[in-house]
Amino acid sequence: MSSLELIYGAALAPFAAPFAADRLLRDAEQATGLGDWGGTRWAELRFRERLSALCQALGNEAKLNATGATRAHSRLHVLLCSRLRQVDWHGRMDSAPPIAAPLVGTGMPRAGTTFLHGLLACDPDNRVATAAQAAIPVPPPGAGAIDEAERTGLYERILAFQGFTAADVTAIHPYAAAAPEECVFLQEGACGMPLGAFYNAPAFGALATSKAGIDDSYAWQKGMMQSLQSAQPGRRWLLKAPSHVINMDALAGAFPDARIFLNHRDPGKVIPSVASLYMKLYSLASDDSVDAKALGPALVARWSRILNDLEAWRAAHPQIRVVDIHYAELIADPIAQAERLYAAFGLPVSARTTAAMASHLKTDRHGKGPARSYSLADFGLTEADIEQGFGAYIDRHGIARERRT
């Protein structure tokens, strides 16, 4: 058994006990041989508060089935062991290397952000965290003790154990241990907002999305990035998460020189796709945790508010350059849009990079699998609801209205 599997092995075992924060913390301490949860530097008290709230929500709100309880425990064991190891590693670093001018992609979910992130990850000048590195960051790549094959192989097994590599899941979102991963997974060790996507746990969500919860998540992400690059400095970070549009102040605070680009797509296609994804993610842990007909209107209300707030934020921060990317144009000519994005930020695009992008596009699965079947009506919505919620946004940005089913 590998050294990593000795630490994370409990994430591959059945779990049937009640969720109790104290027990989970003790189990992680025993698995790692560590006991420092971060103190003031990493907002330990607020982290513990959120963990306790999540454990209560998993027992009281999320309606977990037996498989879901085991999968939730798996996720939490990985999170807690990695938090202990990250706090220890970061504390032993001689200095925290700066994060200089990262490229940051965001926009509504299901608007091509993952597709564009994967394309830009082909640039050898860009650094991304794979899903395995985001989940198991220590030791960082290039620091010895383990190789990437060991880390990736173990985490691929954990992803499968948690249900994420099932064909009906990867048809919606391409979960894979070796794939570039988004920022929410670099934030997960703060036990904050990202976990709300996997469980219907509104009481926990309210605490996780507080200003303190958001600030803690971004501080944790920055620390993770510093650790991950500590043994291999020099490359520019490429980041991505739809949730950044909800937290632009926190994003700009953590990365004041970020080069931000924003994907746009017809919300009439985005909202039912997001709802479908949420339903699938919730189903990995629960048989009956959310009402599909209620989910659609809630997403319309939430995302119309988010996009209005985003417009206000952009108007109030004209000094922060944001490059707009249209989904239809991105899909029509991905490399041309990547080149346009780079040109807007004054970045060169080498022949090596464009060749790597062209090769990537030959095997990328985006838009090539069987069409998924869902409609606005499946989630309690009509086209009139979309136009009422997003018509002004669509017209303001000149977004192409797609065929809505």
Features:
405 residues, Rossmann fold, globular, mainly alpha, five-stranded parallel beta sheet
Report on this model:
The protein has 405 residues and is mainly alpha-helical. It has 18 helices and 5 strands. It has one domain: Rossmann fold. It has helices at residues 3-8, 21-32, 44-60, 66-92, 113-120, 131-135, 148-161, 167-170, 183-187, 202-208, 211-228, 248-254, 267-283, 292-316, 327-332, 334-344, 351-363, 383-397, and strands at residues 103-107, 126-127, 236-240, 259-264, 322-326. The chain is globular, with a radius of gyration of 21 Å.
Give the topology, please.
Elements: H1 3-8, H2 21-32, H3 44-60, H4 66-92, E1 103-107, H5 113-120, E2 126-127, H6 131-135, H7 148-161, H8 167-170, H9 183-187, H10 202-208, H11 211-228, E3 236-240, H12 248-254, E4 259-264, H13 267-283, H14 292-316, E5 322-326, H15 327-332, H16 334-344, H17 351-363, H18 383-397
Helix pairs in contact: 2-4, 3-10, 13-14, 14-18
